[in-house]
Design a protein that fits this description.
seven-stranded parallel sheet, Rossmann fold, alpha/beta, 9 strands, 298 residues
């Protein structure tokens, strides 16, 4: 009888889930209020980090900005303060575990419990596997993956205690599909996807908390400065302003994931459905080319 009951619950949840998806085609969830909420953004010195800081500042959030680039981080802070926000800045090298842990403790003492953690910092070397140095590979993994472990371990316990918080991971479509000259970056983004999915399940299944939300963001090529002059037959690099608007909107509506542009959800699905030869033919047709990149941090 228990099995039949569980099957009934499963069918009911499947129906409700699809009805919810259908309903959201016509009515979007309300945006939540983050006034006075403490929001920590890594990689806030430019790119998405700076753009998100601007937007959350306008919404009245209290900002905690991390970046290895002190000058860029302070510039973001000055701009956010012009919107009336309270801002705390910390110079943090996200490739260093102890730097993250020590700064995390400072944030708790100086500012308070972080409500929203946005793991955004990242690096991209833009070279083939054999052209990369060991140090470049290690730094990519340290900043793009391992830093997420250390920030989560720093701030998640308090969220679990209060059953309140929001974890945001700025991933990439590279977290779903590979690309030439992106071996280290793609591997790192696949890892952050796995980490994010797993921690979401731990919150739900192990800790049984319902008040902690998660959002995973998959942007395509965007002119944040992390990648330069990718070639493609159709379209062009997206502008960071509208992409940042979509990211913040998805966070405020507590969406579990968001692809930007939206059609990349289908493109990533196709990768798993078609034969390898077909996929390679599609790649050749769209002529996506990633030239060798200078070292940059977003």
């Amino acid at each position: 009888m228990s099995l039949l009951s569980d099957i009934g619950v499963l069918i009911g949840q499947i129906i409700l889930g699809w009805l919810e998806v259908f309903a959201r085609l016509f009515v979007s969830p309300a945006r939540k209020d983050v006034t006075g909420r403490i929001i920590l953004i890594t990689g806030a010195g430019h790119g998405f980090g700076r753009m998100m800081a601007h937007r959350f500042a306008k919404l009245g959030a209290k900002l905690v900005l991390w970046d290895v680039n002190k000058e860029g981080n302070e510039q973001t802070a000055r701009e956010a303060k012009e919107f009336g926000a309270t801002v705390f800045t910390y110079t943090v090298d996200c490739s260093k575990r102890e730097d993250i842990y020590e700064t995390g403790e400072k944030v708790k003492k100086d500012v308070g419990q972080v409500y929203m953690l946005i793991n955004n910092a990242g690096v991209l070397a833009g070279r083939t596997l054999l052209e990369l140095t060991d140090e470049q590979i290690q730094r990519t993994m340290d900043v793009n993956v391992m830093a997420h472990f250390w920030t989560l371990r720093s701030f998640l316990p308090a969220m679990l205690d209060s059953n309140e918080g929001h974890l945001v991971c700025i991933c990439s479509v590279a977290g779903k599909v590979g690309g030439h000259r992106l071996t280290d970056y793609t591997a790192a983004k696949h890892a952050t996807l796995g980490l994010h999915d797993s921690i979401q399940q731990e919150i739900r299944v192990v800790y049984k908390k319902t008040g902690i939300k998660t959002t995973l963001v998959y942007p395509y090529f965007t002119n944040t400065g992390i990648i330069h002059e990718p070639g493609m037959r159709f379209g062009k690099m997206m502008d960071q302003e509208p992409v940042s608007d979509q990211i913040v909107d998805a966070i405020l509506r507590e969406k579990a994931d968001v692809y930007i542009p939206a059609d990349w959800r289908f493109n990533c699905l196709v990768r798993d459905l078609v034969p390898q030869r077909v996929y390679e033919a599609m790649q050749d047709f769209f002529k996506v080319e990633i030239p060798t990149q200078p070292d940059k941090e977003k």
